[in-house]
Every structure is written in structure tokens, then in C-alpha cells.
Amino acid sequence: MIEVQQLTKKYQQTVAVSNVSFTVHAGQTLVLLGTSGSGKTTTLRMINRLIEPTSGSIFINGKNILSQPPEILRRSIGYVLQGYGLFPHYTVAENIAIVPRLLKWNKGRIEQRTDELLHKLQLSPAKYRHVYPSQLSGGQMQRVGLARALAANPPILLMDEPFGALDPLTRTAVRKELKELDELKKKTIILVTHDVQEAFELGNIIGLMDKGCIQQLATPTELLFQPANDFVKQFLQQQLFQLEWQSLRLIDIWNDLPVAENDAAITLTSQQTLWNALAELTNSTLPVVAFDKATATKKVFNFSHLTTAIQRQKQPA
Ligand code: ADP
Ligand code: MG
């Protein structure tokens, strides 16, 4: 668990981070979302003591991070830097081995872990182990950066714009891989991004930042349907329609949907979003049928089932 209390960082004229507080529980992902200059990187760097706060405090599992030397603290924290941050004169394997070496793992163990991670991140170890970063594509460098952060299996992962340097297609692909990576499922993660879609896809909680302050700290659905102020509303405005339809899954409205005929052809699962369902309806002349594995039930729906569900979300509770 990470607890940040009234964290502030001032540089002469600039207040980079102003009175920021949040808690991230074990296994959760907090996304710090905001435009450039809103204080995201500074917040992240204070957590692994690359920057010391002007005031405020940070606790990890109840322990003040100032109570141990930064080098020791950083062994339990994987950090994925903004940009790729790989050492150009180190091979892929050497980049990944940095922390295990510091921890004095033996050679065999380091090699085994490196190959395991490369494999998990869909880079053939035989092909990429001895290659230099300049020989890799952006998506591949990003995977190596992640492998390096994960090498010693730290319980905490801090990621600064991990997909920021990737083209949109690669970005979506790497993001999907990240979501499905078993190693990440138990980790406590703070991820920094300026991308609203990314924040909604990856965050259990989102801290929307502006001018060093957190404007709202809430779940994606709360941010959408109960925005704290005009800034939050405006920040989400452009993508509001898509976000609303992505925020609900068919399973969330399962009880409101009629049961489908036994022989109806299934095209969706209950875990897909209303956005997926909308796309399916748009491409179909018939009502669409979805299947829920857990209850082994089939439901059928049309546009009006979906719009009714969205409208209900927007009504004040
Ligand atoms: P973000 O990561 O959200 O883009 P940063 O945390 O990097 O934002 O920066 C927040 C603010 O603090 C910006 O206005 C930036 O110019 C300022 N800042 C960051 N680092 C320094 C520094 N070392 N000296 C002076 N100002 C800084
Ligand atoms: Mg930044």
C-alpha cells in the first residue's frame, strides 16, 4: 500500500506539486492523468526519492520512505521512465539485469529471469538477448524497459508515460499486452499519462491533475458521471461519448436484458462493453445476442436497451 499525504514540491517560482494526497491499495492501479506540466512526473519521482518533497510524507506499507536509504527503497520499486530510458551501450540482457546484479543474483538466475521476461513480453530471447537498444523498434524498447523494471519482481511499479513515445497502433497493442500480463496483476501500480483513454482502460482509480493539484481522485465511472468540478468536465468533454459507452459492460445490465432464443447465434460475451455492443449493432440488421459464461445465459438486445442503460447512469443517484 502506498499512502501519499499532503505532498508539495516547490522550485523557486514554481509550485510543481501542491498538497497532493492519495492511497493506492495493494494490487490496485492508480493513474495520474493530466496535461504536460501538471506535476505528474514530479509526484512519481518523489515516491522513489529521485526528488525530495518540500513538505508532506509518503508511506509504503505503513513505513515512512525516509526511514531507509533510497537505494534500498528502490529495490522494491520498479520504475519505467518517460521515454525509453535504456542504456544505449548495454545489450537488452544487460539492461534487464541491472537490478538483479545490484542484488548480487548469480549468473544462472539472472539469465533465467531475463529469458523468462523476454518470453513473456513476446521478444524471442535467442533473437533479442544480445541486441543493442538502437536495433529495436519503439514497441520493443518499451517492452525491454518494462522487463527491466520487473526484473527483480518488485511489489510496486511506477510508470511514467510508458506508451508516450509509441505510435497509436503500437500503443494500443502494447497497452493490451500490459493489461493481460500476469506479472502485473498483483502489483501496486502508479501510472502517469496524459491520455484519457489509457487512464480509463488501466486505472482502478484516477487522480486528475492540474497545476500541481489533484482536481478529482475517483474511479473512472465516478469521474465520468459525478465530475467534481468544471475542470474535470471539460477535461473529459471531447471523449465523453465514447468513455460513457465504454464504462459499462453488458454484464452490468444483464438483468435488464431479455433472454434469447436457444438457437440464437452469439456474437458477444457479457464481459464486453456497451461500446463493443454498439459497434456490433451498427454492423448488424438483427438484434444482437451475448453469452455469459458464469451463469450460462444468453441475452438479446437492441439499441434502446443500451441507450436506456446509459441514461440511467447519468441520472443523479
Ligand atoms: P508533468 O510530468 O505533469 O508534465 P512535471 O512534474 O514534469 O509535469 O512538472 C511540473 C511543473 O514543475 C512544470 O511546470 C515544470 O516546469 C516544473 N518543474 C519540474 N521540474 C523542475 C525543476 N527541476 N526546476 C524547476 N521547475 C521544475
Ligand atoms: Mg512528465
From TrEMBL:
PROSITE patterns: ABC_TRANSPORTER_1, ABC_TRANSPORTER_2. InterPro entries: AAA+_ATPase, ABC_transporter-like_ATP-bd, ABC_transporter-like_CS, P-loop_NTPase. This is ABC transporter ATP-binding protein. Keywords: ATP-binding, Nucleotide-binding, Transport. The keyword Transmembrane helix does not apply. GO terms for biological process: quaternary ammonium group transport. It comes from the Bacteria. Residues 2-236 form the ABC transporter domain. Belongs to the ABC transporter superfamily. GO terms for molecular function: ATP binding; ATP hydrolysis activity. Pfam families: ABC_tran.
